[in-house]
Amino acid sequence: MKNLKLASGEKGDRTIVKVSNAEIGRGFVVIAGPCSVENERQVLETAHAVKDAGADMLRGGAFKPRTSPYAFQGLGLRGLKILEKARQETGLPIVSEVVDPRDVSWVAEFADVLQIGARNMQNFSLLKEVGRAGRPVLLKRGMHSTLEEWLNCAEYVLSEGNPDVILCERGIRTFEKYTRNTLDLSAVPAIKELTHLPIIIDPTHSTGRISLIGPMSLAAVAAGSDGLIIEVHHKPEEALCDAEQALTPDMFIDIMGRLKALKSFLDNQAS
Ligand code: PEP
Ligand code: MN
Predict the structure, then answer these.
(1) 37 C-alpha vs ligand 1 centroid, how far in Å?
(2) Class of the 13-270 domain?
(3) What residues have CB less than 8 Å from 188, skipping those under 6 apart?
(4) Is 24 helix (H, G, I), strand (E, B) or coil?
(5) Site to substitute for ligand 1 among 99, 202, 247, most atoms within 8 A of C-beta
(6) Ligand 2 centre from 101 Cα, in Å?
(7) pTM, entire model
(8) What is the pLDDT along the chain (271 residues), one digit of tens a residue?
């Protein structure tokens, strides 16, 4: 891809993004937590549950880009303070979305990884701002975007001096309606051919169906993904956002067990 000066695969060594003890691009990293931060109890209970199940990082949105302006928009600063408390209690680094370039510098004081959502993938002023924020960036693929467009967005971040970009495939729009989006698993090996940046899979927003999250998580491991980001809620029936696709802690424990078994099977085959 001719416009890629920094993201291109020809650059040689693969990028490993370090976030506390987690290394994205080496091993397999699992980010889990609620869609949005709703209250302290919800976040702390969920954070402890995912930590106990073996998650490496905690996710949670304090700014929610919603289809309707009347839907819950997130708690903002109050939400980030709750996430900070969860990090203190569990030690899990925080992944949280930023939606406005004006908020980047202060959100970066709370979040260990700045998430750019699918709807903002091509928000170029936001990309430049996170490129200067001194924090790793989780760049989700836009729901209508080609791999080339996506990698050019990564290039925006890299070209501002930030080498720590993690790509996240979260499903693209197709004519299929049974699933929320269509998970493009082929993006994993394709991205590995095209760039040195790590890529993770979001089996939650791509399928929108609890029953499909486990199988797609296992498929992500088999495809060579560097990790997963999954929504878990301590009481999904009470979730203010994406309730229908949040796993209970028990479901998450079950998936983590199967992931571990598959990982060790594949590692043994390789060695
Ligand atoms: C999210 O991860 O909370 C989210 C809104 O995802 P996406 O941007 O992929 O829709
Ligand atoms: Mn969500």
Answers:
(1) 13
(2) alpha beta
(3) 169, 199, 201, 220, 223, 224, 225
(4) strand
(5) 202
(6) 21
(7) 0.98
(8) 878 999 997 767 999 999 999 999 998 999 999 999 999 999 999 999 999 999 999 999 999 999 999 999 999 999 999 999 999 999 999 999 999 999 999 999 999 999 999 999 999 999 999 999 999 999 999 999 999 999 999 999 999 999 999 999 999 999 999 999 999 999 999 999 999 999 999 999 999 999 999 999 999 999 999 999 999 999 999 999 999 999 999 999 999 999 999 999 999 998 8
